[in-house]
Write a structure and sequence with these properties.
There is one protein chain. By secondary structure, this protein is of the alpha+beta class. Helix content is 32%, strand content 21%. Strand 4 and strand 5 form a beta hairpin. It is globular.
Length: 243
């Protein structure tokens, strides 16, 4: 089984690069971008979608502007003409994370570690009882990162399944701590087999970011994250085999 490919994207390119990425977007994507009032938010969305198109086009051997997307009931995107290529995108701050697989459904989530957030209040509101009990033992200085570890793993799980928040965050529990290899859910209100169907793994990110990957099946593995993909104009595609 081929490893899941993970790509790390810089969302602050030069102006010419940004214009090129925007030129590949379809009218629906451009309309979505125009709804973001702060210019930096619009830039990040445009660059994330444009880079996603470029990466998928490279994987398929086609042009970025040729790709057509459809969306599930909860908004999960799929390629209309190439549904066999699964992918997922998450962006936060000035970075984005993309996962791509030819074998299984997957979800990724990325969060920028910020100050001034009531992480304990969010945990009490959204997390399952097993997760809340485990987090009570975490020192205050470590709590923000541990909270985001739980949050990104839960989000990656929901995105992999394509359920969105139709499945409440409190209805399942993810493992805490470091996850260098895939681990199954520690608890779920659903059928017991669901716990082992969607293993979760931590994604190593640069300082200030926390990421997670979830994919279907018990035997998948993830390739090392390819860093700083598309950091600026003229940067070559960094492929898994070094081409």
């Amino acid at each position: 089984m081929e490893p899941i490919q993970l790509w790390w994207i810089d969302l602050n390119p030069s102006k010419p690069r940004q214009m090129k990425l925007e030129s590949w977007l379809c009218p629906e994507e451009r309309a979505r971008a125009d709804r973001f009032i702060p210019p930096e938010v619009r830039r990040r969305f445009t660059c994330a979608r444009g880079c996603l198109r470029e990466l998928l086009a490279w994987s398929l051997g086609c042009r970025a502007q040729e790709l057509r997307f459809a969306y599930g009931e909860q908004g999960k995107p799929v390629l209309m003409d190439h549904p066999e290529l699964r992918f997922n995108l998450s962006h936060s701050g000035e970075r984005a994370l993309v996962g791509v697989s030819w074998q299984q459904e997957l979800g990724v989530d990325l969060e920028h570690l910020r100050s001034g957030v009531d992480f304990r209040g969010l945990a009490a509101r959204f997390f399952s009882e097993p997760e809340r009990r485990a987090l009570e033992k975490i020192p205050e200085s470590l709590f923000p990162r541990e909270f985001l570890r739980v949050w990104t793993r839960k989000e990656a799980y929901l995105k992999a399944r394509g359920t969105g928040l139709a499945l409440p965050l409190a209805d399942f529990a993810v493992p805490l701590g470091e996850l260098p290899s895939p681990r199954e859910l520690t608890w779920t209100r659903e059928r017991p087999e669901e716990a082992s169907r969607w293993p979760i793994q931590e994604v190593k990110c640069e300082e200030g970011y926390v990421g997670a990957l979830c994919a279907e099946g018990p035997k998948w593995r993830a390739a090392p994250v390819l860093p700083r993909f598309w950091a600026g104009p003229g940067v070559a595609v960094e492929t898994p085999n070094g081409c």
